[in-house]
């Protein structure tokens, strides 16, 4: 569809009358109902397709402009996307909300009432998936020709519920009521092979060309969703693949002898490939099905990319000039071998030329420093599942190690360290090494992350090929995370700056710097924050039953539960506040609401127990009349993009307290600061760059930096010595150990205590004192309302850098070397 030359004929009008007529028409002829009998879902679906049609019109013109220009395209390969709800975004991007409100009112429904049916596609875990969505938004906004490729998981990230405070996972059947935002494109289906054998090509003297006979084939069926740019005509797409049984999957022999049910088994097996998203955030899990998912994504997408290339081009010399592929983490890295296989085995390109094309086509973004998050796959598994790819990996590695040996004659240690194959009892393929070897550019996602990558994880590669290493600090889209999430603050900003230009030029927020000194502006700023908190309070009461005070300091920690992010440190602070109030109930305390949000991977027992402890502490705090006067703890279940859009605008304090050197970047930190929350944080990830920009006076810094943390670990870290040396810390840990949060049962949370006093892998106890003291400084600062507001305004004013528009501009200039293509109205 993308490539056909559409007739440039308008199909939708651009007046309110047209919109209203289309709504009625869609209700009748698409939904098959009437105004009188329409249900809520009928209303939602009708509105959705009516808005969608406005984007289809732009998409058709975008496809035509791209066809005519035959530009260089960015192809973003990602196993995860967290797009968020689509309805509000598309109303904003088509500027139709102003029509929908009066029409809906006439019909006696509200937009808010319809929006409850707008299901967020939860096709990702956390930061990496949401970053992919922000980058796509910014690429479209900057008129960059781009396609995102991903998997259409039938079940996205699980829904989190709490039973007796424990996380219980429920399946996310997100398409149950249908998805009005996607277009199936069965004509563009692809066949993907697995297993089987390889045969030599008798006519190939080099032995590098082979023929793969797969043992199993699966069909990939694409559908696409529209990705509109803001303030421009460009509408790009994200293409998602779903696995379907291929004709070969039907076991015809079995059908013949009446084994109908057995024959259908293979269909089920094939369709399982895209059934469910792996719910693991930054922990490797070497499961065969996951590797199948990765190859499925890669195989379908590369064939589609080649199909698109061939619509306007021929020959392979120009391929890497028209195609740039960005690999989002190691998940799609098998693409390096698949492109080699397609070129060498299927298209008869010689190995060297194929390698040159491949290397020039790919770039790789790394999102972690945790060794356990860097994927490795057992050689045995690859040999079985993708036999030809394993051979290609050996060949790539062979030529690569020749290069290493030439650079470091006699140094077999460096060869062992750099090899794509990790030797040992179970030989494994290091996907990050394969990615670096097969790419032109490799990037980290924040300055510290890139620096540490080059010094540690990828040190040998950064030494051999320094020119390949880049930093591109992450960003967030100001459309979703400021304009849509925080309309009140957006209006105030626009009034102050004079126009809405900041939405696509976020550095213009600097213009708020002077307004920070205007008491009337500060009062208006506070008023917005308070109204946002009133709204959040209502939502929190609905979901947790707990009342919160909109005048209390809203202290939020929203992110996946992971030991390195240190929710346990936050909890020690909460318990310390409880103990202080208990010890002196008459003293004055700054009223606080601590809000937690986030999921733990279903198999991550330590973090699931910590979730249970957070809920148990919340229970004790909120039901003790003395404590609840000063402190509330709430944990609304199922934190996701939709909930983020409610919480972030209401936050006063942003908790970014990971152990320095562990959080690659963070992006919630950017969203919160942009919405005027002050950060309490360590010198980790992008926190450093946030602090550099907002100013040290407007940021609450505490704790060890990365070198200090590394030094403490080397010197033999003992959490017990910190426990013994600090009375309040000891009391906090002992309070957990006493069973105070388990009705006196000391055993329930004993593993939490043991983890703290035993290994304390992420050295929370070492940073406890600095953290609690820093929180006292925060409380003190909060009492000076005018000063706090000024700091809040300056955070927003100085965070323009963290727009994903800037991130995309940097990718374009440093890595992609692509130019925009304008689409005429
Ligand atoms: C993920 O969300 C991230 C890293 C990773 O290896 C796997 C997943 Cl699913 C996150 C990082 O933890 C975070 O620091 C970063 O901001 C985000 O990716 C986007 O780069």
Please give a structural write-up.
Allosteric enzyme that catalyzes the rate-limiting step in glycogen catabolism, the phosphorolytic cleavage of glycogen to produce glucose-1-phosphate, and plays a central role in maintaining cellular and organismal glucose homeostasis. One of its GO terms (molecular function) is 1,4-alpha-oligoglucan phosphorylase activity. It catalyses: [(1->4)-alpha-D-glucosyl](n) + phosphate = [(1->4)-alpha-D-glucosyl](n-1) + alpha-D-glucose 1-phosphate. This protein is α/β, with parallel strands linked by helices. It has 3 domains: 1-69 and 97-118, no CATH class; 70-85 and 120-473, 3-Layer(aba) Sandwich (Rossmann fold), CATH 3.40.50.2000; 516-800, Rossmann fold. Helices cover 48% and strands 14% of the residues. The protein contains 35 helices and 25 strands. Strands 1, 4, 7, 8, 11, 12, 13, 14, 18 and 19 form a 10-stranded mixed beta sheet that branches. Strands 22-21-20-23-24-25 form a 6-stranded parallel beta sheet, sandwiched between helices. Helix 23 links the parallel strand 20 and strand 21. Helix 1 packs across helix 2 (40-69), helix 2 crosses helix 3 (87-94) and helix 22 (519-544) crosses helix 34. It is globular and about 90 Å long. The model has no long low-confidence stretch (mean pLDDT 96). Bound molecules: (1S)-1,5-anhydro-1-(3-chloro-2,5-dihydroxyphenyl)-D-glucitol. Residues 125-128, 131, 281-282, 329, 367-368, 373, 445, 474, 663-667, 685 line the site of (1S)-1,5-anhydro-1-(3-chloro-2,5-dihydroxyphenyl)-D-glucitol.
């Amino acid at each position: 569809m993308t490539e056909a030359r559409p007739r440039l004929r308008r199909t939708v009008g651009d007046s309110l009358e047209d919109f209203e007529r289309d709504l009625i028409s869609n209700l009748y002829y698409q939904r098959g109902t009437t105004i009188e009998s329409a249900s809520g879902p009928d209303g939602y679906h009708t509105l959705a397709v009516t808005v969608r049609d406005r984007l289809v019109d732009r998409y058709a013109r975008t496809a035509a402009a791209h066809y005519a220009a035959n530009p260089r395209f960015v192809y973003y390969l990602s196993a995860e996307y967290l797009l968020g709800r689509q309805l509000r975004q598309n109303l904003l991007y088509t500027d139709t909300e102003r029509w929908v409100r009066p029409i809906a009112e006439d019909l006696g429904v509200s937009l808010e009432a319809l929006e409850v049916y707008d299901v967020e596609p939860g096709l990702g875990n956390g930061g990496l998936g949401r970053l992919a969505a922000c980058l796509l938004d910014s690429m479209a906004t900057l008129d960059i020709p781009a396609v995102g490729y991903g998997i259409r998981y039938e079940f996205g990230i699980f829904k989190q519920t709490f039973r007796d405070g424990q996380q219980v996972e429920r399946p996310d059947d997100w398409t149950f009521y249908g998805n009005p935002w996607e277009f199936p494109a069965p004509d563009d289906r692809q066949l993907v092979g697995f297993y089987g054998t390889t045969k030599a090509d008798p006519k190939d003297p080099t032995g590098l060309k082979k023929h793969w006979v797969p043992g199993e084939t699966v069909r990939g069926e694409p559908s696409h969703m529209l990705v509109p740019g803001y303030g421009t005509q460009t509408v790009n797409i994200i293409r998602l693949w779903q696995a379907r049984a291929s004709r070969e999957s039907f076991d015809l022999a079995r059908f013949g002898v009446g084994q109908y049910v057995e024959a259908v088994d293979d269909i089920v097996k094939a369709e399982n490939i895209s059934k469910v998203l792996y719910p693991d955030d930054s922990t490797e899990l070497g499961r065969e099905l996951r590797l199948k998912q990765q190859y499925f994504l890669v195989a379908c997408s590369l064939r589609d990319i080649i199909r698109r290339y061939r619509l306007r081009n021929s020959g392979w010399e120009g391929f890497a000039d028209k195609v740039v592929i960005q690999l989002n983490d190691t998940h799609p890295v098998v693409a390096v071998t698949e492109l080699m296989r397609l070129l060498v085995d299927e298209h008869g390109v010689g190995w060297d030329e194929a390698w040159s094309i491949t290397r020039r086509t790919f770039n790789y973004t790394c999102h972690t420093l945790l060794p356990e998050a860097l994927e490795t796959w057992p050689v045995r598994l690859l040999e079985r599942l993708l036999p030809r790819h394993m051979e290609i990996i050996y060949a790539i590695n062979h030529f690569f190690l020749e290069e290493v040996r030439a650079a470091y004659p006699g140094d077999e240690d460096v060869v062992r360290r750099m090899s794509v194959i990790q030797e040992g009892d179970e030989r494994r393929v290091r996907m990050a090494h394969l990615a670096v070897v097969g790419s032109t550019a490799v990037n980290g996602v924040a300055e510290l992350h890139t620096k540490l990558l080059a010094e540690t994880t990828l040190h040998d590669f950064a030494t051999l090929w320094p020119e390949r290493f880049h930093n591109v600090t992450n960003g967030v889209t100001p459309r979703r995370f400021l304009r849509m999430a925080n309309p009140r603050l957006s209006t105030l900003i626009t009034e102050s700056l004079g126009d809405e230009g900041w939405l696509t030029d976020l550095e213009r927020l600097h213009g708020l710097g002077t307004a920070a000194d205007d008491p009337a502006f500060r009062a208006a700023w506070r008023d917005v924050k308070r109204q946002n908190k009133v709204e959040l309070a209502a939502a929190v009461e609905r979901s947790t039953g707990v009342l919160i005070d909109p005048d209390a300091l809203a202290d939020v920690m929203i992110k996946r539960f992971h030991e390195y992010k240190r929710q346990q440190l936050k909890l020690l602070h909460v318990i310390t506040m409880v103990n202080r109030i208990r010890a002196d109930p008459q003293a004055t305390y700054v009223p606080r609401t601590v809000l937690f949000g986030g999921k733990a991977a279903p198999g991550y027992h330590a973090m699931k127990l910590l979730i249970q402890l957070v809920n148990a502490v919340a229970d004790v705090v909120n039901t003790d009349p003395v404590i609840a006067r000063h402190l509330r703890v709430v944990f609304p279940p199922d934190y996701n993009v939709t909930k983020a859009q409610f919480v972030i605008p209401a936050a006063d304090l942003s908790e970014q307290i990971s152990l320095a050197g562990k959080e690659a970047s963070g992006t919630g930190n950017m969203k919160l600061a942009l919405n005027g929350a002050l950060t309490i944080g360590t010198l980790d990830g992008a926190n450093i760059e946030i602090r550099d920009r907002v100013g040290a006076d407007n940021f609450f810094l505490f704790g060890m930096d990365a070198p200090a943390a590394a030094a403490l670990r080397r010197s033999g870290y003992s959490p017990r010595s910190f426990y013994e040396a600090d009375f309040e810390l000891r009391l906090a840990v002992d309070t957990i150990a006493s069973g105070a949060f388990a009705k006196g049962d000391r055993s329930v949370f004993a593993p939490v205590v043991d983890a703290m006093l035993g290994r304390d892998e992420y050295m929370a106890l070492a940073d406890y004192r600095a953290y609690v003291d820093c929180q006292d400084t925060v409380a003190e600062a909060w009492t000076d309302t005018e000063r706090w507001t000024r700091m809040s305004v300056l955070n927003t004013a100085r965070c323009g850098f963290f727009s994903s528009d800037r991130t995309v501009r940097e990718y374009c200039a440093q890595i992609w070397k692509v130019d925009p293509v304008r689409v005429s109205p």
